[in-house]
Write a structure and sequence with these properties.
This protein is of the alpha/beta class. It contains 13 helices and 15 strands.
Length: 363
């Protein structure tokens, strides 16, 4: 797992592959807050390939960044991160130096949980500009020493070759088959089955590309639950993938809600790209009313806090689907909704559960 700190968009695409692959236990927290994906989103969405400055392979080979990595105790990791950024590093990321070994220490958490967990030893990796000479990097490390108030620990340097980082990242994402006849396809890929339901969706800042188990569970539930002609609310819509899927499956009135304005914009863009009628808004802008289907893919703690609000949005006899729940959290979630629903696990993948239930009348 990596934690990235990147004030500039230039380099924060570098740690994307590791950060994206390893943040599998906290989907909403990771995808909405990480600067890595913010830069990724800018690079892949806001800047068409035709507008980017292209370099030849020889030009790329002649350029490289300098990475400086050091292993420090947990208490010193933040201090050295700040010191290196202040000394001119383009980006800094923290990782477990024992990653990909039996001794790796995964760190999990949810919003509202202040665990204070840290790796006993953290690897701090600072990236310096391709314009920086060895003398420039030496000077930056001396400045970081002064700022941190202690000598520079043992460290290593290595060159990071210049590449087309947007294209490098795109290579990680291909079409995802959710079920027979249903695909999520990035815009740079051709649909594997043109006759199938193909949602065009690019990985970006907002959560929800179909690659995470919780998103897949929600998509599978929508496909196997009758939503044609239903009023559907996607609460915590992220990329809008669930709302867009409901619309493609025939829902007659589809709304999406998120607390993040950037998610609202991403959802609206994705709905337009898929030519579906779905409307998205911040929670305060959602008009009063109830829905035949309410689906929320968030995390257990927010779902528990939102129980009265979400229950009030489900019409009598309507259905609710809740996801982002770890197996050991299901009892707490079921208890929070017990006044209105008898929730039961529908299906689980990789330790994640989707729970669903039907709204009892007049409760």
């Amino acid at each position: 797992m990596r934690i990235a700190r990147a004030p500039l968009a230039l380099d924060c695409a570098l740690p994307v592959p590791r950060a994206f692959d390893r943040a599998t236990r906290a989907p909403r927290a990771f995808d909405r807050a990480t600067p890595v994906l913010r830069a990724f989103d800018r690079g892949m969405r806001a800047q068409p390939a035709s507008d980017r400055v292209e370099m030849s392979e020889s030009e790329r080979a002649a350029r490289h960044f300098t990475a400086v990595s050091l292993d420090v105790d947990a208490d010193a990791a933040e201090r050295w991160s700040e010191a290196l950024l202040g000394a001119g590093a383009l980006s800094v990321d923290l990782s477990d130096p024992r990653a990909d070994t039996a001794a790796e220490s995964p760190l999990y958490g949810e919003p509202g949980e202040l665990t204070g967990a840290r790796w006993p030893v953290s690897r701090v990796c600072a990236l310096f500009s391709s314009e920086a000479s060895k003398a420039d990097v030496d000077a930056a490390l001396r400045a970081a020493e002064q700022s941190a108030g202690q000598p520079m620990p043992a460290h290593a340097r290595h060159a990071v070759a210049e590449r087309d980082w947007v294209r490098e990242t795109q290579r990680q994402f291909g079409p995802i088959e959710i079920g027979e006849g249903f695909w999520i396809v990035p815009s740079w890929c051709a649909p594997p089955d043109p006759a199938a339901i193909n949602l065009s969706l690019d990985p970006g800042l907002a959560f929800g590309t179909g690659s995470h188990p919780t998103t897949r569970l929600c998509l599978e539930w929508l496909r196997e639950t009758r939503v044609a002609d239903a009023r559907v609310l996607d609460y915590g819509c992220g990329s809008g993938v669930l709302a867009i899927t409901a619309a493609r499956l025939g829902a007659c009135d589809v709304r999406g809600v998120d607390v993040d304005p950037q998610a609202i914009r991403a959802s609206a863009d994705n709905a337009a790209a898929n030519r579906v009628a779905a409307r998205f808004s911040l929670p305060d802008a959602l008009a009063p009313g109830s829905y035949d289907v309410v689906i929320a893919n968030i995390l257990a703690n927010p779902l528990i806090l939102l129980a009265p609000l979400l229950a009030a949005r489900v019409a009598d006899g309507g259905r609710i689907a809740l996801c982002g729940i770890l197996a050991e959290q299901q009892d707490a979630v079921a208890a929070a909704y017990a006044r209105w629903f008898t929730l039961a696990p529908w299906r689980g993948v990789d330790g994640w559960l989707l729970m669903h239930g039907q709204r009892r009348a007049n409760d």
